[in-house]
Design brief:
- Belongs to the methylthiotransferase family. MiaB subfamily.
- It is an enzyme of class 2 (transferase).
- Its cofactor is [4Fe-4S] cluster.
- One of its GO terms (molecular function) is metal ion binding.
- It is built from 16 helices and 25 strands.
- By secondary structure, the protein is an alpha/beta fold.
- The strands form 7 sheets. A 7-stranded mixed beta sheet has the order 21-20-19-24-25-22-23, with no helix packed on it. The chain has a 6-stranded parallel beta sheet with strand order 4-3-5-6-7-8, sandwiched between helices. It has a 3-stranded parallel beta sheet with strand order 9-12-15, with helices on both faces.
- A hairpin with a 2-residue loop joins strand 24 (about 550-555) and strand 25.
- Helix 9 (about 275-285) packs parallel to helix 10 (about 335-345) and helix 14 (about 430-445) runs parallel beside helix 16 (about 470-495).
């Protein structure tokens, strides 16, 4: 009180101030100004209170509170309050048409979204004319990818207008990265899109479509720190059960300065290993012959879902590499997952994409070399051959460190096939930087490459901190030079396969000729060979027809490939005796 008395003079009201208390009535509407009886006013208030009481209460939004015999647990495993009845969220056999653009992750996202909608009674169609709902699973990695979607939406707009005259209205939805990046612009641009769902909001699709049926646009683009869809078993649409994609992690923490992925896919989180193994076992039982493990940074997989995985061991990186984030510790690592997956079915090929060069410690490389059904094909995105440009890209390595990794990989796996990504014309790239990229391509010798001109993306580090100062025509010129050199080196590398024996997983009939079949080698190289009965290994008859899903051992010849015999699987492909084979 002593302190208050000392401050009292500061709050003294001047004598000429007269305190006046004004009370003004507050009106909820113009109706309140009209003369109504007290009974009518009570009736209106009671009706309003009744409407409020029929809706959700404050307790509905608090975890750990029991409301109407529904328990809301603190761990999040609660029964959610539904504002739409189950009947309203059912698809009622409406037909959904998917179009998928971009990376393999979007293919897997399509399978996940379809699995969720199928449970709600939707049907899938491959005929756009039959569709009640059209969902575009989109990519936002480059401007060209987004422009493709805008052009497609204009085509669908005309179809939607025609549909209004004869059928129930067609609903159009944008899913994936473009929905996450552009959000409001997509909803407002010509009011064409009915549903918007980001990569972490596919569970909400039934509700969003129900809201859209009421004539409103519906959107959910919230990113999650936990969503992996571990409990959603994708409905795979692999042709004839030949191959399938299995998502093992989502998001990316690398924050490369050119990349939009961390902003459209969110932070890294890994799917529990038990869920992954269950899906791979199911695919094996279905006769799938090849599984590709997917993730934005697939080899940084780190499962911390079980306490036994949470040790104090620090994550091991490739020698000479670093990250922009603090070193992580604990968790079941990629090498552990790869080991367990490869043991499920020795006759099933295992691939993975897309990795980051920093996450190839020796334990991963030795496992790939030792395990017969893990393909000796590694995607090793370089992006540039200049250390200066790599630093601006925030890649976490130099040209020298990258070449040391390549040398280490080839020492452990002499027959490895390498592929890579390159960006031409990144911010500040000089002609000397470009020449260093060309020399890197020549020095490494890749089988396959993915090359693009730089396209600046909003929200990225480059957008905020760097200047896109390489003219468009220079970007295209440098890109053309990279492609030319890449093709020259790929031809040289692939020519070294002539005379070698390759185990090929048959994909089906060749597009070039109905008389030929096509398939892929362990190194993911596409090969074409004659459609004819071949010598059968471990079979009662001498010959057997070749079908999609078969493994066929072939000999590469100059100007063609000669089929040898049907092979059981990849488990002994690196120890197959080269005897009894026909030569061209």
């Amino acid at each position: 009180m002593g302190h208050l008395r000392m401050l009292k003079p500061l709050f003294t009201i001047p004598p000429h101030w007269v305190p006046i208390r004004c009370i003004q009535p507050r009106y909820c509407s113009n109706l309140a100004n009209t003369s109504v009886t007290s009974r009518e006013r009570r009736t209106t208030v009671d009706k309003f209170k009744s409407q409020i009481s029929s809706g959700p209460s404050f307790q509905d939004f608090i975890k750990g509170v029991s409301v109407n015999n529904k328990t809301y647990a603190a761990d999040g495993e609660c029964e959610e309050h539904s504002y739409l009845s189950e009947d309203l969220e059912m698809g009622n056999s409406r037909k959904v048409y998917f179009e998928t653009y971009g990376c393999q992750m979007n293919v897997n996202d399509t399978d996940i979204a379809w699995s969720i909608l199928q449970r709600k009674g939707y049907q899938r169609t491959v005929d756009l004319r039959e569709a009640d709902v059209v969902l575009l699973v989109t990519c936002s990695i480059r401007e060209k990818a987004e422009q493709t979607i805008w052009n497609r939406l204009q085509e669908l707009k005309a179809m939607k207008k025609r549909r209004l005259k004869t059928h129930t209205p067609m609903k159009i939805g944008i899913l994936g990265c473009m929905a996450e990046r552009l959000k409001t612009e997509i909803l407002e641009r010509e009011k064409l899109v009915d549903v918007l769902a980001g990569p972490d909001a596919y569970r909400d699709l039934p509700r969003l479509l129900t809201v859209a049926d009421g004539g409103q646009q519906a959107s959910n683009v919230l990113l999650s720190l936990e969503e992996t869809y571990a409990d959603v078993m994708p409905v795979h649409h692999a042709p004839q059960g030949r191959s399938a994609f299995v998502s093992i992690m989502r998001g990316c923490d690398n924050m490369c300065s050119y990349c939009i992925v961390p902003f459209t896919r969110g932070r890294e989180r890994s799917r529990p290993v038990s869920s992954i193994l269950e899906e791979v076992r199911m695919l094996s039982e279905q006769g799938v012959k090849e599984v590709t493990l997917l993730g934005q940074n697939v080899n940084s997989y780190r499962d911390t879902s079980e306490e036994q995985f949470c040790s104090s061991d620090l994550t091991q990186l490739s020698r000479g590499f670093k990250t922009v984030y603090r070193t992580k510790q604990g968790g079941l690592r990629f090498s552990d997952l790869l080991d367990r997956v490869s043991r499920i079915d020795p006759d099933m090929r295992i691939r993975f994409t897309s990795p980051h060069p920093k996450d190839f410690p020796d334990e991963v490389l030795h496992l790939i070399a030792e395990r017969g059904n893990i393909c000796q094909q590694i995607h090793l995105p370089a992006q540039s051959g200049s250390s200066k440009v790599l630093e601006a890209m925030r890649r976490g390595y130099t040209r020298e460190a990258y070449l040391d990794l390549v040398k280490n990989i080839k020492a452990i796996m002499p027959e490895v096939s390498l592929s890579s990504d390159f960006i031409s014309g990144f911010c500040g790239e000089t002609e000397d930087d470009h020449q260093q990229t060309l020399s890197l391509i020549r020095e490494v010798g890749y089988n396959v490459g993915f090359l693009f001109a730089y396209s600046m993306r909003k929200k990225t580090h480059a957008f905020h901190r760097l200047q896109d100062d390489v003219p468009a025509e220079v970007k295209q010129q440098r890109l053309a030079e990279c492609i030319r050199v890449f093709r020259e080196e790929a031809a040289r590398v692939n020519a070294a396969l002539i005379g070698s024996m390759q185990l090929v997983l048959v994909e089906g009939e060749s597009k070039r000729s109905a008389k030929d079949l096509c398939g892929r080698t362990d190194g993911n190289m596409k090969v074409i060979f004659p459609k004819e009965d071949v010598a059968a290994q471990n079979a009662e008859s001498n010959t057997a027809p070749v079908n999609a899903g078969d493994y066929v051992l072939v000999k590469v010849s100059f100007g063609g490939i000669t089929t040898a015999f049907v092979h059981r699987g990849p488990q002994n492909q690196r120890k197959v005796p080269y005897t009894g084979l026909r030569c061209s």
